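Thanks for the sequence, V.! I ran DUF397 domain-containing protein right away. Repeating your input here for the record:
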Amino acid sequence: MSERTEFEFHTSSVCVYNNADPRCVEVATNVPGRVAVRSSVTGRTVEFTSVEWADFLTGAKLGEFDLSA
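Predicted structure:
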């Protein structure tokens, strides 16, 4: 049986952690081929493949997820 590598989460550099409002996104990229995203509020984690994560970042940079008012 192989040992499972644990995710090492890092908080976004633009997150200003405030005890009164602790909403931050944490991302782990230390496991080869996998990316995990975690809510600092609930602790819930969502996992993606490296390809899915790269596609998401590309879309975000191109404004695919921008919401109109």
